[in-house]
Write a structure and sequence with these properties.
With 121 residues, the protein is an all-beta fold. It has one domain (6-118). The chain contains no helices and eight strands. It has strands spanning 6-12, 18-26, 34-43, 53-59, 64-70, 83-91, 98-106, 113-118. The strands form two sheets. It has a four-stranded antiparallel β-sheet, with no helix packed on it. β6 and β7 (98-106) form a beta hairpin.
């Protein structure tokens, strides 16, 4: 997703418990002017490799990426045995800002960890 100047790509780790946005500065008109700015990661320990179901999609018209990440056993309605994260992200059209909204539902208290890495260059 991006606005022609700032781009972001969403990935998860192999356990499905860490969501990472890779942020790059790019000139959409030149393939030689792409460089990484850094990452923003959100770790949700309640999501795990054996049970996490991930689903992400883009609405190209709205330039928005959506995702659902769940360790609950019931996919259609949240059950009392897991963690469900819903996500919506976009890069603002006229300002280089990545906006992400997370909604976390859990059957128990859940702590999340947010971290970032900045690339020198």
């Amino acid at each position: 997703m991006g606005n022609g100047d700032l781009s972001a790509v969403l990935t998860t780790d192999k356990t499905g418990s860490v969501l990472t946005w890779w942020v790059t500065k790019t000139d959409a008109w030149s393939t030689s002017d792409i460089f990484g700015l850094g990452t923003v990661s959100v770790s949700v320990p309640g999501l795990n490799a054996t049970a996490t179901k991930t689903f992400a999609w883009q609405d190209l018209g709205a330039a928005t990426t959506f995702g659902t990440f769940s360790s609950a056993t019931n996919d259609t309605a949240f059950s009392s045995d897991g963690v469900k994260v819903t996500m919506e992200s976009f890069v603002a059209a006229s300002t280089n800002i990545l906006v992400t909204t997370l909604n976390i539902t859990s059957s128990a208290a859940t702590t999340i960890d947010v971290s970032h890495a900045v690339y020198a260059g």
